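ok so for the tutorial part 2 we go from a plain amino acid sequence to predicted structure tokens. step 1 is just haveing the sequence, like this:
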Amino acid sequence: MCEASAYLIKDGKETLVLESVDILEPLDESGFMLKNIFGDQKIIKARILRMELVSHKILFSEDTP
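step 2 — the prediction. this is what the tokens look like for a chain of 65 residues:
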């Protein structure tokens, strides 16, 4: 299994956005569409902070204008 869970880091805490993410697509300069293996999808307006591939994590940080 190569899926990852996506988390938004806010105020120093990780909040789960979507589990079992299979597809990550950039939408524009400020967001991504996430799709998981179950067909669920979410749009997140954030930037990728880092990816932890061994831990199967995608960590996002909110953009600040």
